[in-house]
Structure of formyltetrahydrofolate dehydrogenase:
Amino acid sequence: AAADKDGTPVFKFPRWRVKGKPIPEVVDAYKSVGAELNVMPFCSQFIPMNVIDHPKHGSIIYHPSILPLHRGASAINWTLIHGDKKAGFTVFWADDGLDTGPILLQRECAVETTDTVDTLYHRFLFPEGIKAMVEAVQLIADGKAPRIPQTEEGASYEGIQKKSNSRVNWGQPAEAIHNWIRGHDKVPGAWTVIDGQSVTLYGSSMLGGSVPAGQALEIEGASQPGLVTKNGLVLYGSDGKALLVKNLQFEDGKMIPASKYFSSGESSSVELTDDEKNMAEAIRNIWKSILSNVAAIEDTTDFFKSGAASMDVVRLVEEVKQECAGVQLQNEDVYMATTFQDFIQMFVRKLRGEDQEEELVIDYATKEVNNMTVNMPHQCFIDGKFEDAENGKTYNTINPTDGSVICKVSYASVGDVDRAVAAAKEAFDNGPWGRMNPRDRGSLLYKLADLMEEHQEELATIESIDSGAVYTLALKTHVGMSIQTLRYFAGWCDKIQGKTIPINQARPNRNLTFTKKEPLGVCAIVIPWNYPLMMLAWKSAACLAAGNTLVLKPAQVTPLTALKFAELSVKAGIPKGVINILPGSGGMVGQRLSDHPDIRKLGFTGSTPIGKQIMKSCALSNLKKVSLELGGKSPLIIFSDCDMDKAVRMGMSSVFFNKGENCIAAGRLFVEESIHDEFISRVVRVPCSNTAKEYFLLHPLLGVSGSCPQGPVSSMSYPCFSIS
């Protein structure tokens, strides 16, 4: 369709050759175009050499490996199977060999332990490959394209893997097994034998943290049993290290979540409405068009037993989504509902939103503190669920008042960021949030504020132990202002208006120009540690009120109130995927958010050097919008005609409020010379106010030791501010 719009001829022939000889009419049709250069994605061996050599500039080919490594048709798979630390692609000149021609240009990227064939392709090989092919064509046009002969040193050729030789060898370290599984995912699929039948393993990741509790499962040939846990199937390598598999597929083509291996219950069937029956018939016709060898599509017809392959899965998903706009369907859904009847039941549940009603499961960290029991989520919050980081890693979050460990928190990976962004994008593009009446969206935010108020003592207690905030201040300011902020922006949801712009009334058209304000899409938020919940509210409330979805990274040292906020958002009825929370490092999570092409805006509060890096990354990735609140050193200027006692009190409270952790803290005092000495004298004589007591008693780690002195202070060093 795009080519037709540009007047570009498109030819579709099933083959170039018959019995090794070029088909004359196909070659003639090609030559009629008069191409000066052939640009080919993958594989030249099916194209006759008189076509490859015909153009003035010959032919160039894209290959998804750093040649001469991994020649052949499964280069991305073998990059992962071999555990390569680098992946990449090559644009090279075609010759009569298999991926052996001279190199024009190459690009490479690092391979993460969480990468799959899909993530490597979509993150780097596809988008950067297109850019590189454009660059290659321009180099040829300018007469500057190199032809660098390929060396045979280090060259390798690996063929397309078959199911028969993709069985897992359990006598290897866990990382090698992980690479084998992810390199074969989705085709042909790495398999093993469980309970006498071959089972294919999908969705592998290394398990870096503690192994969750589960039920043992014997794996044929493995050194120790696997473990079916709530997160999936834990498997062990010969080195005793563990990996996690998310999905299992049986010999009959049926796929299940690995966590459900021992679950036998079948969900009850749903009764279809007349409209849903019409949709079911439309889907039956789609099945029929794909399974053309099947006489009739019965309820018991199995998609894969009828001859369907992986490309047919993609076609089925896309055609059903096109026929029934708005339904959220993934390739895995087909594998998990292989018969027509099961597929329709699954489809109708998704259409009704019933698949979203699964009860929220939270593995709380519980603590008795402040005369109450506080329940703290501590895992990543992605797509409406709390779950461990993809690699299983965790870290300790510390109570800064005494250095004790509060709990272990999930340490999000790059893969977790990609999943969270995908969930937020899906929620924005296809979920109910984007289609919701703004007034209904406001009602949900009001409800969220009410729940925060209902849990304000628990939130303030969590804030106090996680950030070191004084409890009374946390209750009034950290939590109280967060609730007020949410209510304020909830009221804005149905009041966001556009405007018309007066312009020259060009006749006869009488033009009208207007501005319509629309949500951007997926927004990323990176917040600091001084007011964890309040900074979350300030940035996310406006974002949500406008109809955006978000991925938020709390400060690594203060993640707990953000995760509690996520729990309350589910109870408020915020749809899944709208809010995603990723605890972890700024260098990993924050950087990936800055680089991610599907994020439309990023808000950051933090240091100026990091702000510069974020702005650069946002510009280079996709010119995403940026809001930055960066470092400063705010001064107070005090003149000789001031109320001296008040100036001293205000000067001290301005720097020490909230332990001195303020973006607007008066870290500098400029005092007029004529009153400078008297001001200094009064500063060191000032009796301890409530603020000073809070600072000295509760926060010795900030550089001032000892208990609060009773009466005047004789001498004191203030490491966090200066007086000039």
Summary: Confidence is low (pLDDT under 50) at residues 688-724. The longest helix spans residues 117-141. The longest strand covers residues 197-207. Residues 199 and 562 are 39 Å apart (CA to CA).
